[in-house]
Input
Amino acid sequence: MIVDVVNLQGDKVNTVELPAAIFEVPVNVSLMHQAYVRQMANIHLGTRKTKGRSEVAGGGQKPWRQKGTGRARQGSRRAPHWVGGGKVHTPKPRDYSQDMPKKMRRAALRSALSAKAAASEIVVLDELTLPEAKTRLMASSLNTLVGNASALILIPAKDANYEPVIRSTNNLPDAKTLLANYLNIRDLMLYDKVVMPLKALDVLVSYLG
Output
């Protein structure tokens, strides 16, 4: 697949061929769904915890004698129906994480990238640099490149060259910067367009190609 390479002003400066092994594979929706569910499950901490009647303090003495008071029999002040008593059928810590082989995770990324490419939702830049960290500069460039669409901006490395881009994007609600080797199915589905410089494309090819 041949796509245009543009600059931050939106002018075409060259063309590049997107590898068919990454950007033209059959779209496997079920695999993408499995990868998405796995990612969302793995960020679920599962640390909710409440105390049962055996864990709350107190309750060692019977509140009143069994018979002769006219009241209902009670065995402990820490029973679930008492104020301050233990809870019943409430959340306990558990592990929500799911496993998925690396080959399947990467195949899901290829499917998502292929769907983006088929919909012309991938923007390739020759260079992604800003003279200074200014939100208005990045906002202006993204408005030229993607219009009102949300954008996932892939950067090849987190170094001084891309620091102004990262800082300029932080205040934009519909844009996010992400290291190319951290690409994940959730961000691909969450944002409308994928913006990447040629160096970030090389990173993708190095581990997905």
